[in-house]
Amino acid sequence: MTTQLGCEKRAFVGASSDGGEDYRAIVKFIIEFLGERGIEVRSQHNGSLEPVKTFLKMVGDPTRTDDNSFRDTDCKWIEEDDLFIAEASHRSTGLGAEFHHARLKPRLGLPLTPILVVHQPGCYVSPMLKGISKSEEGYIWIRKYANPEELRGILLEFLARFG
After folding, report:
1. What pLDDT, in 10s, does the model give residues 49-74?
2. What is the distance between the alpha carbons of residues 23 and 36, in angstroms, rounded to a whole number?
3. Which of the four CATH numbers 3.20.20.70, 3.40.50.720, 3.40.50.450, 3.30.70.100 does domain 10-162 have?
4. Is this model's pTM higher than 0.85 or not?
């Protein structure tokens, strides 16, 4: 599927890769939801039961087991993708780093990327994610969802605005 401008959209879907197993089904839901709308998600490993092993299979090089390769590939994808969506219900230093890489793309001379951070009520979300400025509120959304139907509505609204 293509957008009105004739170019395919890509999204990076971030989530905790260490722990957060309770949220993997939600991450997979987000990835499938985007795919059904013609949005390519290269970070599909984040919705799998074993994100690191799945990543290595996806990139087709099982020798790339060092953390630098994992980080560098994620950063490259974030730089190239049009949207950034993060499931932040489980604490993750890596997710925070990915969020900030997407947030700071304009400082790197790259296009601004709309960002959606979703989390379930009652979950701790770091001030590093929630602490956005008034000027960023137009393209960085932090939203709570209680169930997949609420999440579906949030995703539809985000895509209607940015996708």
Report:
1. 777 777 777 777 666 556 667 788 88
2. 20
3. 3.40.50.450
4. yes
